Amino acid sequence: MKIIGVKRIKSAVFLGLFGISIAVAQPAKLAIVIDDIGYHQKEDAQVYALPKEISVAIIPSAPHARQRNEQAHKQGRDILIHMPMQPLGKQRIEAGGLRLGMRQEEVQQRVQTAKEIVSHAIGMNNHMGSAATSDVDLMRKLMQELKAQHLFFLDSRTIGRSVAGNIAKDYGVKSLERHIFLDDKDTYADIERQFQRAVHYAQKHGTAIAIGHPRQQTIAALQAGLKKLPENVQLVGMGRLWRNEKVDLAKPFNLLFNDIPAPTSILPYQSVPMLRGVPE
C-alpha cells in the first residue's frame, strides 16, 4: 500500500509539471439561512458572528431591519427579504405582508417598500405563507414584481402544495426551495440532529438548503456543527446556489519557472562542458 501511495504522489507531480489537469470531484454545497432577523439585538449579533457564508433573511418591518441590512452588506453576507405572507391559520402577519386577493398595485408597492428597507437583498423568502405560496393568483403577482426587482426566490416550503417554484419558472425568476428546517423543536439535541440531516442530504444530493432562526440553541448547534463540517461539504451563501456557481476547490500547487532563456539557447551558441548536443 505504501508503494502505491508513492506512485500516486509521483504521478500527481508529473501531471502538475506538464500542466495536465485531471477532474476533481466538486464538494457538496450546504446553504444555511437564518430567518426572522431584525428583532433581537443579542441573538442577531450572535448570528452575525457566524461565518459570512450563512445567509440572513430580514423582516422588513422589524425594528432593526435597516441596521441589519447594512451590517450584513459590510460583512459580504447574502441577504434575503423575509417577506411576511398569509398562512392557512389565523396567525397575524407583520405590517407590509402579502395577503390573498391583493391587487397587482398593492403587491408591487409592498415588494418595493421591502426592497427599499432591505436594500442589499438579492432574494426573498416567505415568512409563514402556507396560504400565500399555494395561491396561484398571488404568486403570479409576486413573481412579476420579483422579476422587475431582479430578486431570486427561496420557497421556505411551509406547505407541501406550494406553487411558488413553478410560477417563478414561468416568469423567469430563479427559485430554490428549503430542504431541512433546523429548529422546528428548540432543543440542542434535535437541532444538532437536523444539522446532520442537512449535511447528509448535501452529501447525497449535492446541495442542501437549511433554514433556522436566531435562537440560542440553534446558534450553539451551528457553532459546534460548522467546526466539524466534513471536507466534502462546503458552506456557501444562497447567492452561490442561485447563480449556480461552482464551489472553491483548493488551489493546485504551481511550480514557478524562470522566464529568462538558458545561456545555451542564446546566439552565439557556446560549448559548455558536461552538456551534450550543444551546437558549436
UniProtKB/TrEMBL annotation:
InterPro entries on file: Divergent_DAC, Glyco_hydro/deAcase_b/a-brl
Signal peptide start and end residues: 1-25
Pfam families: Polysacc_deac_2
CDD domains associated with the record: CE4_DAC2
Keyword annotations of the record: Signal
Protein's name according to its UniProt entry: Divergent polysaccharide deacetylase family protein
